[in-house]
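To the wet lab folks,

You asked to see what we're planning to order before we commit. Fair enough. Below is the target structure as C-alpha cells, and below that is the sequence we designed to fit it. If anything looks off to you, flag it before the synthesis order goes out.
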C-alpha cells in the first residue's frame, strides 16, 4: 500500500493532470490539497480533452475525489465542472466527490479585489489568474474567511457576511475604485450553491483516515509548481499557497507518516505564465518553436506561456524542498525537432558560479544561465512505448537529468494522451 504526492517542480503546467489521471488508475482516492481554480489540469483520453480546475484529476478514472481543507473553492466553478462531467456521463455524486467542511469559499469580492489590485499595480502586476485566489487566502490568514461549514449553515453564513461585507465594500469602492457587492443578492446566490454542494461536504481528514484503514491508496494532486510556492517560490511572483509536498498533509488533514513517496513532474523544458524572473527563458526562434510545438498556452487563462531550457538549479531546489523520490518527465516529444538541447546547470552571478536560487529577486533577475549542450535526437517519439526504443540521444538526455538530480525517472511522457506514456516504475503496483 502506498500514498503518493504529485507536485510540479517548475512554475506550473508541467503536465500534472496527465500524470495524475494515468496513476489514478491504480489509486483509490485522489486529493487536491491547495490552490483553487487558478489550476488548469489537462487530461486527454481517447483523443478527448478535459481541463479540470477544481475537481481532482482522478475523476475520469472514476475514483473517489477529495477537495481538501487547503483548497480555496469557487462554488460556481465547481458546480459548472460537475454539470459538465455529468453531461458527459461521468458520475460526480456525493459518494464520488467530497469537499472539506474546512475548505474556504471564494466570494465575488475576492475576484473584484484580485482584478482591482492587478489593475492598480500596472506594469508591476503579478499576472494572477484573476480567480480571487490571493484575496481568499488572505482572508483565511486574517480570520475573515468563509468556510464550507459556514456556507452550508444559513445562520453562520449570514453572520460571517454581515461582519465582512461592509469592510470589503469600503475597500472596493474607496481604495480600488471598483464595483461593490450587494450582500442580499450574493447571499441568495451562494445559498443556492450551498444547497447544491451540501451533500458533498464532509470532514475530509476523517474520511481519509477511514480510507487508509480500509487499505485504500491515496494520490495527492498538487497544483501550480514549487517555484510558485508562497514561501519557497520566486516571491512575490508566486501564488498564495504552499505548493510543496509538505502541504499535502496540512491541506488535507493527514500526518506525514502516511506519505510514502513524492513524484516531481518535470517538463522536459521550462515554462512560466505570468510575471517574474526565469533565468533560462529563451527570447529567440528556439523559444518560439518550443512554444508552438508544445502548444504552450495557459489552460486557465489562455495566455501564451514563456518558454526556456530545462534548469536543474530550479529542479534541484524542487528535489530538496519536496523530498522527491521519483521524477516524471513530460513533453519529451516537444524537443524532437532540435539539433541541440541545452540544460542550465548553474547560474553566474557577479562573476561567480552559484547553484542555489537566491531569495532576492533582483539577484535572481541578474543571474545568467550556465549551459551544457547535448545532441538533439530529431525524431518523432510519440509512438514509442518502451524506454529502450527511445533514440539514444533522448536516453542520454534523460540519464543526464538523473545524474544532475540524483533522482530516478519513473515515468516518461511522449504525448498528451493517457496512453502516450512510458511507465518505468509505478509506485502503486510495486
Ligand atoms: P498541469 O497544470 O501541470 O496539469 O499542466 P497543463 O494541463 O496546464 O499543461 C500541460 C499541457 O501539456 C496540456 O495541454 C497537456 O495535454 C499537454 N501534455 C502533457 N504531457 C504531454 C506530453 O508528454 N507531450 C505533449 N506534447 N503534451 C503533453
Ligand atoms: P497549474 O496547477 C501556471 C501563476 C499565475 C501568476 C501567479 C499568481 O495549472 O500548474 P494566482 O492566480 O495564483 O494568484 O496567480 O501564479 N499561476 C499558475 N501558473 N500554472 C498554474 O496552475 C498556476 N496557478 C497560478 O500565472 O503568475
Ligand atoms: Mg495547468
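Sequence we intend to order:
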Amino acid at each position: 500500500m502506498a500514498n503518493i504526492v504529485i507536485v510540479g517542480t517548475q512554475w506550473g503546467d508541467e503536465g500534472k493532470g496527465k500524470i495524475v489521471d494515468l496513476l489514478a488508475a491504480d489509486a483509490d482516492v485522489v486529493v487536491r490539497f491547495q490552490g483553487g481554480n487558478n489550476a488548469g489540469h489537462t487530461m486527454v483520453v481517447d483523443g478527448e480533452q478535459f481541463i479540470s480546475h477544481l475537481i481532482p484529476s482522478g475523476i475520469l478514472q472514476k475514483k473517489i475525489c477529495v477537495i481538501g481543507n487547503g483548497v480555496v473553492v469557487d462554488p460556481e466553478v465547481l458546480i459548472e465542472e460537475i454539470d459538465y462531467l455529468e453531461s458527459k456521463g461521468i458520475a460526480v455524486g456525493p459518494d464520488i466527490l467530497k469537499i472539506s467542511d474546512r475548505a474556504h469559499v471564494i466570494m465575488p469580492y475576492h475576484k473584484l479585489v484580485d482584478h482591482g489590485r492587478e489593475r492598480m499595480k500596472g506594469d508591476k502586476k503579478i499576472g494572477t489568474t484573476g480567480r480571487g485566489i490571493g484575496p481568499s487566502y488572505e482572508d483565511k490568514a486574517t480570520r475573515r474567511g468563509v468556510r464550507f461549514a459556514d456556507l452550508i449553515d444559513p445562520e453562520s453564513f449570514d453572520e460571517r457576511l454581515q461582519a465582512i461585507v461592509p469592510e470589503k465594500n469600503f475597500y472596493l469602492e474607496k481604495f480600488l475604485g471598483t464595483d461593490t457587492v450587494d450582500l442580499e443578492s450574493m447571499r441568495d446566490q451562494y445559498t443556492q450553491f450551498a444547497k447544491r454542494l451540501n451533500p458533498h461536504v464532509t470532514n475530509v481528514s476523517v474520511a481519509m483516515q477511514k480510507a487508509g484503514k480500509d487499505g485504500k491508496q491515496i494520490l495527492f494532486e498538487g497544483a501550480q509548481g514549487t517555484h510558485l510556492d508562497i514561501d519557497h517560490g520566486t516571491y512575490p511572483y508566486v501564488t498564495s499557497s504552499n505548493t510543496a509536498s509538505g502541504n499535502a498533509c496540512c491541506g488535507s488533514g493527514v500526518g506525514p507518516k502516511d506519505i510514502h513517496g513524492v513524484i516531481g513532474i518535470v517538463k522536459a523544458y521550462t515554462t512560466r505564465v505570468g510575471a517574474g524572473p526565469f533565468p533560462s527563458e529563451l527570447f529567440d526562434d528556439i523559444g518560439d518553436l518550443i512554444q508552438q510545438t508544445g502548444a504552450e498556452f495557459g489552460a486557465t487563462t489562455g495566455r501564451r506561456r514563456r518558454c526556456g531550457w530545462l534548469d536543474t538549479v530550479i529542479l534541484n531546489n524542487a528535489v530538496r524542498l519536496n523530498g522527491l523520490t521519483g521524477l516524471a518527465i513530460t513533453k519529451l516529444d516537444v524537443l524532437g525537432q532540435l539539433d541541440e538541447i541545452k540544460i542550465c546547470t548553474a547560474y553566474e552571478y557577479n562573476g561567480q558560479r552559484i547553484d542555489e536560487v537566491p531569495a532576492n529577486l533582483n539577484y535572481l533577475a541578474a543571474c545568467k544561465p550556465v549551459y551544457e549542450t547535448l545532441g538533439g535526437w530529431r525524431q518523432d517519439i510519440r509512438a514509442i512505448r518502451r524506454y529502450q526504443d527511445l533514440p539514444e540521444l533522448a536516453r542520454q538526455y534523460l540519464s543526464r537529468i538523473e545524474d544532475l538530480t540524483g533522482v530516478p525517472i519513473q515515468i516518461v511522457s511522449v504525448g498528451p494522451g493517457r496512453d502516450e506514456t512510458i511507465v518505468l516504475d509505478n509506485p502503486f503496483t510495486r
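Structural context that might help your review: The pocket of 6-O-phosphoryl inosine monophosphate (ligand 2) is lined by residues 8, 11-13, 38-41, 126-129, 131, 133-134, 223-225, 228, 239-240, 273-274, 299 (CB under 6 Å). Residues 104-197 form a domain with the Adenylosuccinate Synthetase, subunit A; domain 2 fold (CATH 1.10.300.10).

Thanks,
Computational group
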